[in-house]
Specification:
The chain has about 575 residues and is of the alpha/beta class. The protein is built from 23 helices and 17 strands. The structure holds adenosine-5'-diphosphate, magnesium ion and zinc ion. Keywords: ATP-binding, DNA damage, DNA recombination, DNA repair, DNA-binding, Helicase, Hydrolase, Isomerase, Metal-binding, Nucleotide-binding, Zinc.
Amino acid sequence: RFGWPPEAEPPKRLSAAQAATGIRPEATMEDARRLLKRIYGYEDFRPGQTRVLETLLSGRDTVGIMPTGGGKSICYQIPALLLPGTTLVISPLISLMKDQVDALASLGIPAACLNSSMSLRETNRVLREAAEGAYKLLYIAPERLESERFEPLLRSMEVPFVAIDEAHCVSQWGHDFRTSYLHIAGLIRRFERRPLVAAFTATATDDVREDIVRLLGLHDPQVHVTGFDRPNLSFTVMRGAQREKVLLRYADMHADQAGIVYCATRKEVEHVYKTLVSHGVPAGMYHAGMRDADREEAQDRFLRDDIRVMVATNAFGMGIDKSNVRYVIHWNMPKNMEAYYQEAGRAGRDGEPGECILMFQGQDILTQKFLIEQSTSHPERKANELRRLRQMADFCHTQQCLRRYILQYFGDPDAPEACGRCGNCNDNSETEDITVEAQQIFSCIRRMRERFGMTLVAQVLKGSANKRIAQLSLDKLPTYGLMRAKTEREIFDLIQLLVADGYLTLTEGQYPVVKLLPRAAGVLKGEERVVRKTRKVTRQRQAGDDVFEELRALRKSIADRDRIPPYVVFADSTLRDMAVRL
Ligand code: ADP
Ligand code: MG
Ligand code: ZN
């Protein structure tokens, strides 16, 4: 039941609009469904829309987080039609506002907008009609709220419901901050009767979500995250793959179809582009260092299917809507899951199958860390981005279902246990039971009171004779030396895997501390088993392997002689891969 108006008070005067829809304020989901069918011609709500509407119909403030195309508009248009008076919709996009008003008009729903592109005369007409209660929905650009002219008017209207679209604009963490969004909370507070408030966005990060609730002044809202699954997409992570081979195979497999290859740097865009062209693949490239005209031409040719593969940095794709992209390859790991999912999500917009392949290289983490260091000096922001980078790296290392990882990351409750069609679900490599090792690691972390980092935990389990361990008396722990038979590196890798698979977590900051997650408790109690997949594929020899092996042998012999491994300085940055392996 709708909580508005609080007392069962009949609307003062039935406006033309209300008479047209003839809806009582005590509306039910059945009423909502009937309206959906009658006005929009859709059979039913999407699962997430149902959850949002149920909350709104119960009269509770709501945050609806849904990806683009998820169907947010209906989540506020239907309640607007079910309620008396005029619903205010705050939206920052003028063009979108006009489209919606026109679309509503074609459905026979009276709506109007107020924004800075309108003449004074038009504005005055809308204001006059709005005061008379002529509209069911009034779209307002947030800047208009700053003008004192509007306030008395808005407050003289009967406003049962305020919907805020693109609500992430209120947050400085978002990519689209607008100061005018900060005026919304004040407006809502000044209504004589506080309207119901709903905020909608496609941005799902925690910090943005918290800002939305706080800065828009929502009252104990229910937050619904929903619709993030893209059932027609398949996801695969390849670690240490021979990237060129994989790329050329996909370009060949989809010879007449469109694909996008995302790279982290301009240099790599150029390299991948040249590789494709030299193999006769009609490719184009796109990055911020190109001339505007060249970039536009490349984009047009891609949209026209003149070129099939677009090699690009993350600058490509904003606002372009090409529906028949069959695959998206990430040549490098992106900086966070939001960026990854948005880019990968450009595959299969038409609902036909799309493949998303991420080719992870250990060096990607260093590259992204470097880019983060370069892009911001704000400590809080940096910590935030490093945390998200780690979650991205976990995605690259996890063994669990990739779709599940994505949906859990965004907080979408419709996550399956395992989708059965991602690279991890279909991985037919052998599995090894590591439950006992996991239990040893968890109990050691517990004994160490969850106060230390991965390296020290690994050293304690190894039984290292290290000064710090002695100082802290960690060598007195019963778990000291429990995994003596393994190398410290092996133990460290196991811990890392348990982090990636959601048994352990790392705290933020310069010295991350390993902590147990609830899932670990199940393992300690013997209720859950832990497995590790071991890939049987052996890596093929690459150019440079000989030099690498020689170098490693030399380094080892020096280390054996001097008891300290020597520093190795690489004079050429193209040898960075080798440095990481070493
Ligand atoms: P968003 O604002 O979340 O990006 P929109 O509100 O613009 O998404 O909706 C995207 C598309 O989905 C629109 O074409 C809309 O008509 C359609 N749509 C929304 N809800 C439903 C539904 N329940 N059934 C079928 N189509 C729907
Ligand atoms: Mg929208
Ligand atoms: Zn899966």
